[in-house]
């Protein structure tokens, strides 16, 4: 039991605890423990070829069919993580077919051109347009589903070729495709390529009007610039009070009350129906950056609502604690989310969620029940708008 759990308050699970970002399908053997968990809903990310269908099946099996209540156990999210972005060929801008080797030489840095063993063990790359159409199908199949996990990562390197020892000590219970215990290679995925993969998925989220869960490591500036680019031309117009009153006067003079109502509805419908190139809501998951970019992400002219989510493991495990405390104190009440970011469902996931919820309540000076209720409301706004 951690320090924060040792205080005497019972934890108000009945108010609803929502995990904004986790990976239970990485350990399929314990997915069956989800119905017994204390958390209300898990927002379950897909990341790579091996887990998209697992996420879909888990949602299908654990959510009661025909149950339209919003109390589903699993909220599935479909997306391609930056750690696997090299496995996609960007065929959306140029259709020139390339060999597997040419593709990997092109998107990785330093160039693996003389490292045939490394290239050989990489999977045959998949076309981005195929991924986008498959993701679109999943999003259609699950009308509440999100796009995620997507993002940019400047720090990560690809895992190296499996050694014999790594192979024999491999945990058979883990869904394949992730790093597991492998040593890292020197290779990174070029930023341009990661960016193209992220942009295409953000545009898909815009087309389908779904929220997204974004991974960003040492890349907050590039992520923000990309949002600026897709937001361009759609910024919200801020009117001063005097301008708002003036506009009201003009509208009042031009039409009676009845007409006013009709016009209002019409403009809302048009806005809703127009396909937009950016997601309506964004979660910066396990946000590890400083305070400054938050102000940019929360600027009132941005047409997407940006939320920030925190996990006990990534955000409160020592090194970056001071930074995250400043960030949590700087955020508005209604933009904070909690997550476990864990790859195993069950009691450990519940404990981490309780832990981070208590930490945030303490930092914000929220009374526990009021704070847990606020976090639940925030998740509902992030997911359902
Ligand atoms: Zn994740």
Q: Figure out the total of helices.
A: 14
Q: Ends: how far apart? A: 35 Å
- Mean of all residue-level pLDDT scores: 89
Shape: globular
Q: Kindly name the structural category.
A: alpha/beta
Do you know the CATH architecture of the largest domain? Alpha-Beta Barrel
Rounded Rg = 22 Å
CATH-defined superfamily of the largest domain: Metal-dependent hydrolases
The figure for the number of domains is: 2
* Structure summary, number of beta strands: 12
Sheet bearing the most strands, described?
A: 8 strands, parallel
Q: Order of strands side by side in the largest beta sheet?
A: 1-2-3-7-9-10-11-12
Pfam families: TatD_DNase
GO molecular function, one term: hydrolase activity, acting on ester bonds
InterPro entries: Metal_Hydrolase, Metallo-hydrolase/TatD-type, TatD-like
Biased composition (Basic and acidic residues): 241-251, 262-274
Explain what this protein looks like in three dimensions.
- The chain is α/β, with parallel strands linked by helices and 385 residues long.
- The protein folds into two domains: 3-234 and 281-384, TIM Barrel (Alpha-Beta Barrel), CATH 3.20.20; 237-275.
- It has helices spanning 52-62, 100-107, 116-121, 128-141, 164-168, 191-208, 220-231, 241-254, 257-273, 292-297, 312-315, 321-330, 347-364, 368-384; strands at 18-22, 41-44, 74-78, 88-89, 108-109, 126-127, 146-153, 188-189, 212-217, 281-284, 305-311, 336-339.
- The strands form three sheets. An eight-stranded parallel β-sheet has the order 1-2-3-7-9-10-11-12, sandwiched between helices. It has a two-stranded parallel ribbon with strand order 4-6. The chain has a two-stranded antiparallel ribbon with strand order 5-8.
- α4 packs parallel to α6 and α13 packs across α14 (368-384).
- The longest helix is centred in the middle third of the chain and has 18 residues, at 191-208.
- It starts with 17 loop residues before the first strand and ends with a helix.
- The structure holds zinc ion (ZN).
- Residues 21, 23, 45, 149, 215, 341 line the site of zinc ion.
- Zinc ion binds at residues 21, 23, 45, 149, 215, 341.
